[in-house]
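Figure 3 (text version): structure tokens given as input.
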């Protein structure tokens, strides 16, 4: 008999070996129980409806029905937290994983070498992520529903600003953004309406599994009109360009409007790159000509740096609870007084455009 407080997991992978190793690794955590296994997306859809797991680990490339179609169907009819467990060596799968996030999956992780030792190396990270994601109350995605019977969901209510905007400041020339779990689809929604000639550079720290930042950049590059790249040390920050912090370094912006990548700086908390380092440097070196934004994510990274930005005269924005997948980072930013505005995701885009025109 399964205890009620256990996290119930459905494993979806076409490899018998991967499923077996993953099952054995998860069995080492007393708080997790594997309640089922599926060899393809079709079985995943059937077992999700029958077993109602707390979380699904989902492969991408599978016969009969791939991970995209399975994710789309599950999120339309039996919404369940999904962790994409993608190949660690296949760049095309890293790119493809973000398509699954747009369909409703919550996060991605690299699938290691198919050995017990390879899986054991990430066991702690994997089990912690599974327990965390399983607690998220996911919403229905109507995209899959529209392929059959359509049902319109009620609109998300709009949130009011914490205080009226200051119309006396100079137009901003840098946007500094921090996001974590739920960030990739939120960033797509935030950035895609921006014009190709956006007059400021955009710097972003996105907490993500090591090795996936290139895939995120490649995915966003075909979704938005701005230039998107992984930042390089010393390059000039240019308008209409989005710069993502690479793995394992702290990204800062300098007074001479350049990217600085600092391998010598330690993690802030557990994060490298850290949102705090980016936003603090933006406040110190751009002042009121920067805008700080904190999006969905677990933890408190970014609140300290956002407060520096606000103290230096920059507008600071936190995503509201209703539109956040995880109201962790934005909540701390709001409660600490770092955010001058609290807005739903779609209104953050409008506010960025308005601030560029002042």
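Below: residues designed for each position.
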């Amino acid at each position: 008999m399964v205890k009620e407080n256990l996290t119930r997991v459905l494993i979806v992978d076409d490899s018998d070996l991967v499923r077996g190793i993953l099952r054995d690794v998860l069995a080492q955590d007393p708080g997790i129980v594997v309640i089922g296994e599926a060899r393809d997306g079709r079985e995943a859809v059937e077992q999700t409806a029958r077993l109602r797991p707390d979380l699904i680990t989902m492969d991408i490339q599978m016969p009969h029905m791939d991970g995209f179609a399975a994710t789309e169907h599950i999120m339309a009819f039996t919404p369940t937290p999904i962790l994409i467990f993608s190949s660690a060596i296949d760049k095309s799968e890293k790119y493809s994983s973000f398509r699954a996030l747009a369909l409703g999956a919550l996060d991605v992780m690299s699938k290691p070498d198919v050995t017990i030792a390879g899986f054991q190396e990430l066991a702690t990270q994997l089990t912690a992520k599974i327990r965390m994601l399983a607690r998220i109350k996911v919403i229905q995605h109507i995209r899959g529903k529209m392929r059959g019977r359509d049902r319109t969901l009620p609109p998300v209510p709009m949130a009011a600003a914490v205080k009226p905007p200051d119309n006396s400041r100079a137009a901003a020339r840098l946007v500094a953004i921090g996001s974590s779990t739920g960030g990739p689809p939120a960033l797509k929604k935030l950035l895609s309406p921006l014009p190709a000639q956006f007059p400021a550079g955009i710097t972003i720290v996105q907490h993500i599994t090591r090795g996936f930042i290139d895939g995120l950049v490649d995915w966003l590059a075909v979704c938005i009109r701005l230039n998107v790249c992984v930042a390089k040390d010393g390059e000039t920050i240019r308008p209409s360009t989005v710069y993502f912090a690479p793995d394992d370094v702290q990204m800062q912006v300098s007074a001479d409007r350049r990217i600085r990548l600092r391998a010598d700086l330690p993690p802030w908390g557990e994060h490298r790159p850290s949102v705090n380092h980016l936003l603090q440097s933006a406040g110190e070196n751009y002042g009121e000509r920067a805008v700080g934004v904190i999006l969905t994510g677990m933890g408190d990274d970014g609140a300290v740096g956002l407060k520096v930005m606000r103290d230096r005269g920059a507008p600071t924005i936190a995503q509201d609870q209703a539109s956040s997948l995880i109201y962790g980072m934005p909540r701390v930013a709001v409660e600490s007084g770092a955010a001058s505005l609290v807005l739903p995701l779609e209104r953050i885009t409008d506010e960025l455009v308005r601030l560029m025109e002042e």
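The first helix runs from residue 16 to 27.
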